[in-house]
């Protein structure tokens, strides 16, 4: 527990400083998160990171990360071309490797690039376009959901939420996550309202809390399928980047879809 707390405090400082600063510093942070997250995906599948498919997948993930009008590094046309080229190259790898690198492995590399690249893209775009206050509101709702689920689950948890995917998660924990997310988010919104109306704030917190817990379950499903406890070891006591930011990767794309 002590190691988890120390890592959490240090990680919070390292994470919040670029988040507050924004600009190139924040872009560098999210880019590093994308690189590490993609590597963690390959390692869960026990694929070597020193290979042509891994290099192609990493480039595609970074293209997805910095695409779009918010970042202005890669146009939509260039992005579409990049995706097509990546798919062609990955499929050709299956041919020239005589299926040593088969279609299933290629599909996983492509999925990993989409999962990490798109998820963190919308996190990056939200900070650059919507600003610090909006992103902080979303993060507080995510963290409160995680904390509430953990605390309520330990204290009152009896009914498993989804035992085949994550045996330790409970219905009571999920409800506790909702309650703490609403409490902390509305306290935050009373000082720095992210939306024009109270109903919009209520709906946003509901979406964030539900999507955050879904993102957590998705990551748990991937880890359980590949029989790994944590996605990585970069954060002592917490696991990997994907272990800590699985909710974030799921929440920001969902918010983007609803907001447009």
TrEMBL record:
Q: Does the keyword Cell wall biogenesis/degradation apply?
A: no
Q: State the UniProt keywords alphabetically.
A: Cell membrane, Lipid biosynthesis, Lipid metabolism, Membrane, Nucleotidyltransferase, Phospholipid biosynthesis, Phospholipid metabolism, Transferase, Transmembrane, Transmembrane helix
Q: Could you tell me what reaction this enzyme catalyses? A: a 1,2-diacyl-sn-glycero-3-phosphate + CTP + H(+) = a CDP-1,2-diacyl-sn-glycerol + diphosphate
Q: Where is it located?
A: Cell membrane
Question: Pfam families annotated for this entry?
Answer: CTP_transf_1
Coiled-coil annotated residue ranges, if any: none
Q: Which residues cross the membrane?
A: 6-35, 47-67, 79-99, 106-126, 132-152, 173-192, 198-218
Topology class, membrane: Multi-pass membrane protein
**Record's Gene Ontology CC terms?**
plasma membrane
* Principal location class: membrane
Q: Which GO terms describe its molecular function?
A: phosphatidate cytidylyltransferase activity
Question: How far does the signal peptide extend, from start to end residue?
Answer: none
- Pathway entry: Phospholipid metabolism; CDP-diacylglycerol biosynthesis; CDP-diacylglycerol from sn-glycerol 3-phosphate: step 3/3; Lipid metabolism
* UniProt KW Nucleotide-binding keyword: no
GO terms for biological process, alphabetical: CDP-diacylglycerol biosynthetic process
What EC number(s) has UniProt assigned to this enzyme? 2.7.7.41
The text of the family note is: Belongs to the CDS family.
Q: What is this protein called?
A: Phosphatidate cytidylyltransferase
What is the species listed in this Swiss-Prot or TrEMBL entry?
Salicibibacter kimchii
